[in-house]
TrEMBL record:
Protein name as catalogued: Ferrochelatase
Main location: cytoplasm
Lyase keyword on record: yes
Family of the protein in this entry: Belongs to the ferrochelatase family.
EC number(s) per entry: 4.98.1.1
Pfam families hit by this protein: Ferrochelatase
Binding site for Fe(2+): 200, 304
Organism from which the protein derives: Hymenobacter koreensis
EC class (word): lyase
Cited function: Catalyzes the ferrous insertion into protoporphyrin IX.
PANTHER family for the chain: FERROCHELATASE, FERROCHELATASE, MITOCHONDRIAL
Keywords: Cytoplasm, Heme biosynthesis, Iron, Lyase, Metal-binding, Porphyrin biosynthesis
Length: 348
């Protein structure tokens, strides 16, 4: 008989998840990635009988070669930034959390898959699993899709462990402090006339579908983040912006909240507005010459930050007569961000 009873407590599993990225910037790999991404019913919420033939047969074949060119611009020696920042974050969070925890990293689309990351935790017989989708603001198309995938996988396990989800962290003090610190460092280098908080867009329809008891009407309802719009993407984007502005001592007239990356569709369904590309073209006419741009919907640099905000918007701003456009780097593996993630896990 052992002198002390063995503890029944195992390690705590932590699953960090980001969106996903192609395995390489080759058209074939980009096509495979887009096929998986854009046939997800939470991303493109059309009936499956239309979605699959339309996207696999028309949209993705047309888009893949163009997207591949952009991914070629983004690619580094270490591959896609979204992937290597995620793997680096996982390592650093593991070091900080210590041996009582086991941290795994997965992507919603492509590799490393959520399935492989969950299997790592299962093999280690973790006691319970904390899932942190790396999306600060809740969207059914991003966070919701990760939650659905995790539940689909574990529902097939014979023993289903206790699982908790950190569904959003739009107002998390550590997340806000990381971006504010990065922003202040840029502001110390030069004077800016205006700040833009540019979030990934989603169709307006997605916000309305998630509206509880019809509370959200894409108007002032989103101005205050409260129990009625707890999971409203738009309300959370405004709340993040307000908190960032407060942390950087910005008055309301010194910043604008905008939405980027809308998928142009012939159906012309509206996405969240105002659109970043339209707003920035009006800045020079208003005497705004120096703009500091944040992309707070992303905690790791990726195609949407480095290329869209850092290069494409910069070019558009300059063509419209603007002076200096500067992207604030994302949280990536900033020590404050690693600490913020560790705190969120500890609090869970
Ligand atoms: C912030 C979280 C994200 C939400 C919400 C989201 C919604 C969403 N996205 C598309 C279409 C595309 N997004 C693409 C890239 C992309 N999207 C996110 C995050 C969210 N998307 C990230 C982190 C990335 C970058 C990935 C990388 O590899 O760096 C792309 C691919 C690029 C391109 O071809 O333009 C598409 C397409 C839709 C339709 C959508 C809807 C609800
Ligand atoms: Fe996206
Ligand atoms: Fe609202």
């Amino acid at each position: 008989m052992p002198s002390t009873p063995a503890s029944t407590k195992g390690r705590i599993g932590v699953l960090l998840v980001n969106l996903g990225t192609p395995d390489s910037p080759k058209t074939a790999d980009v096509r495979r990635y887009l096929n998986e991404f854009l046939t997800d019913g939470r991303v493109v919420d059309m009936p499956a009988a239309i979605r699959y033939p339309l996207f696999r047969g028309v949209v993705v074949p047309l888009r893949a070669p163009k997207s591949a060119k952009v991914y070629q611009q983004l690619w580094t020696e270490r591959g896609s930034p979204l992937l290597f920042h995620g793997l680096d974050l996982k390592k650093m969070v593991q070091e900080q959390l210590g041996n009582d925890y086991l941290v795994a990293f997965g992507m919603r689309y492509q590799n490393p898959s959520i399935e492989s990351a969950l299997q790592e935790l299962r093999d280690a017989a973790v006691d319970r699993i904390i899932v942190l989708p790396l999306f600060p603001q809740y969207a059914a198309a991003s966070t919701g899709s990760v939650q659905e995938k995790v539940m689909e996988i574990v529902s097939k396990w014979w023993v289903v462990p206790s699982i908790s989800f950190i569904s959003s962290f739009a107002d998390d003090p550590g997340y806000i402090n990381t971006f504010a610190t990065l922003g202040k460092a840029e502001m110390a280098k030069r004077n800016y006339d205006h700040v833009v908080f540019s979030y990934h867009g989603i169709p307006e329809r997605h916000v309305l579908k998630g509206s509880q008891n019809g509370y959200c009407k894409l108007a002032n309802c989103c101005n205050h983040y409260n129990k009625n719009n707890r999971y409203c993407y738009r309300a959370q984007c405004y709340e993040t912006s307000r908190l960032l502005a407060k942390a950087m001592d910005l008055a309301p007239e010194q910043y604008t909240v905008t939405f980027q990356s809308r998928l142009q569709s012939r159906l012309r369904d509206p996405w969240l507005q105002p659109y970043t590309d339209e707003v920035l073209k009006e800045f020079p006419g208003k005497g705004i010459q120096n703009v500091l741009a944040f992309s707070p919907a992303f905690v790791a640099d990726c195609l949407e930050t480095t290329i869209e905000v850092g290069e494409e918007f910069k070019e558009m701003f300059e063509e419209a007569g603007g002076g200096h456009w500067q992207l604030v780097a994302s949280c990536n593996t900033h020590p404050l961000w690693v600490e913020a993630v560790v705190d969120m896990i500890h609090r869970n």
